[in-house]
Amino acid sequence: MKIIQVTGRSNTGKTTFIKSLVPVLRTKGRVAVIKHLADHEFLLEQGKDTTGFFTAGAEISVGIDANKSVVALQNNSLDAMLALLNGQGMDFVIIEGFKERSFKKIVIGDLQIEGCIFKNPTANDVVASIGRFDTY
After folding, report:
1. Residue 28 belongs to a domain
2. CATH code of the domain in which 103 resides
3. Residue 49 within any structural domain of the chain
4. Strands 60-64 and 69-73
5. For the chain, where are the alpha helices, taking DSSP H only?
6. Which residues contact 83 (CB under 8 A, 6 or more apart)?
7. pLDDT tens-digit profile of 23-56?
8. Is 30 within the bounds of a domain?
9. What are the distances in angstroms from CA 109 to CA 93, 119, 121, 132?
10. CA distance 78 to 104
11. Which of 10, 56, 57, 70 is the most buried (most CB within 10 A)?
C-alpha cells in the first residue's frame, strides 16, 4: 500500500487537491483517505443508536444505510488505521495532515518541511511518480 501524505498550512487547498487526486488514483487501484481532524472533533449524531453503542463502550459501532457504511472505532492511532486499511486491501492511502510523521510528503502552499518530495503538484504528477512514496 502506497502512503501519500499531503501537508500544508490551513486553507491552502489540501482537501481540494486530495479531491482531485482520489479519482485519478482510483483508476490505478483502491484508495482510502485519512484526515487529521487536529483541533476539531468529528461529532457522532446524538440520539442515534450507533452513537449510543459507541458511547456505551463498543470497540466498533457500524451503521449501514442504502449507500454507505459508517464506522466509529475506539481507536485514534494513525498506525492502527494504516494497518486496518492495509488489511482491507487498499492500494493507496492519502493522509491529510499529521505533518510530524516521517512519510514522504506533498506540500500544498509554502510550508517548509522535511520529507517534501513535491510542492503544489498536479494529480497526474503524483501518479507518474508513485514509486517515490513510502510503501506500508
Report:
1. yes
2. 3.40.50.300
3. no
4. antiparallel
5. 14-26, 49-55, 78-87, 123-128
6. none
7. 999 999 999 999 998 777 777 889 989 999 999 9
8. yes
9. 21, 7, 10, 20
10. 15
11. 70
Q: Is the pTM of this model over 0.85?
A: yes
- Identify whether the C-beta of residue 100 lies closer than 8 Å to the C-beta of residue 92: no
pLDDT tens digits, one per residue of 55-92: 999 999 999 999 999 999 999 999 999 999 999 999 99
| Within a domain: 94 | yes
Task: Using only the alpha carbons of the chain, give its radius of gyration.
Answer: 16
> Per the structure block, which three cell numbers stand in for 45?
449524531
**In 3-state terms, what secondary structure has residue 16?**
helix
Q: Which three cell numbers stand for residue 131?
A: 514509486
Q: Where in the sequence is the domain holding 10, given as residue range(s)?
A: 2-39+75-135
Largest Cα separation within the chain, whole Å, is 46
Q: How far apart are CA 11 and CA 28, in angstroms?
A: 28
b/e per residue 116-125 (b: at least 16 CB within 10 A): eebeebebee
